[in-house]
């Protein structure tokens, strides 16, 4: 994805922008709606975020964040700007964006910490080739075809290695007492 942003920044590549739009627009709309925006506002804010990408792609720094993180931040900030503009005199204290995160109770916090530790340990036991693919796909937000191109691997190989990694992770986590949530 970062390569597509680079193409937009350097060459104003419309195909790269179109690919980014097709990938991120539905996700941004859903994210903004989860934050309390109505569908029309979510769509408008997504358009603005993608326009920002088009005009400010050169400001993206892949060493600081992934494309997804950068775009979600742009969309969130636009949402906050709209809330400030529209409700400058009247702030809704129930607005999800303005609510502090709930403090988990001690049992939940301990359970979550244990789960995170178990997942990290399970990831550490993956073969390096599978771990690197999982990192690229799920932590860097790259598509399977982008990974295949970057690593010069057939697409089917990338998909099967990721599937094997998740099968191995599932078995390890189930053996540790962590069940898949529906």
From TrEMBL:
Coiled-coil residues: none
Keywords linked to the UniProt accession: Sigma factor, Transcription, Transcription regulation
Molecular function in Gene Ontology: DNA binding; sigma factor activity
Name of the protein in question: Sigma-70 family RNA polymerase sigma factor
Cited PANTHER family: RNA POLYMERASE ECF-TYPE SIGMA FACTO, RNA POLYMERASE SIGMA FACTOR SIGZ
Domain RNA polymerase sigma factor 70 region 4 type: from-to ranges: 118-169
GO biological process, one term: DNA-templated transcription initiation
Protein family per UniProt: Belongs to the sigma-70 factor family. ECF subfamily.
Native species: Phreatobacter stygius
InterPro entries, alphabetized: RNA_pol_sigma-70-like, RNA_pol_sigma-70_dom, RNA_pol_sigma70_r2, RNA_pol_sigma70_r4_t2, RNA_pol_sigma_r2, RNA_pol_sigma_r3/r4-like, WH-like_DNA-bd_sf
Matches recorded under Gene3D superfamilies: 1.10.1740.10, Winged helix-like DNA-binding domain superfamily/Winged helix DNA-binding domain
Domain spans labelled RNA polymerase sigma-70 region: 20-87
């Amino acid at each position: 994805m970062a390569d597509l942003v680079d193409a937009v920044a350097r060459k104003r590549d419309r195909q790269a922008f179109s690919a980014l739009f097709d990938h991120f627009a539905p996700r941004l709309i859903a994210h903004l709606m989860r934050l309390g925006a109505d569908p029309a506002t979510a769509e408008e804010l997504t358009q603005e975020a993608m326009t920002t990408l088009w005009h400010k792609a050169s400001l993206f720094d892949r060493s600081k964040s992934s494309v997804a993180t950068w775009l979600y931040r742009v969309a969130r900030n636009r949402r906050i700007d709209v809330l400030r503009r529209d409700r400058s005199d009247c702030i809704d204290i129930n607005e999800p964006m303005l609510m502090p995160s709930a403090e988990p109770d001690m049992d939940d916090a301990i359970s979550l910490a244990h789960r995170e530790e178990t997942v990290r340990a399970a990831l550490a036991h993956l073969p390096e080739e599978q771990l690197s693919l999982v990192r690229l796909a799920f932590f860097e937000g790259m598509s399977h075809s982008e990974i295949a191109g970057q690593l010069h691997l057939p697409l089917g190989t990338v998909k099967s290695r990721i599937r094997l990694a998740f099968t191995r992770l599932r078995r390890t986590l189930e053996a540790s007492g962590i069940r898949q949530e529906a």
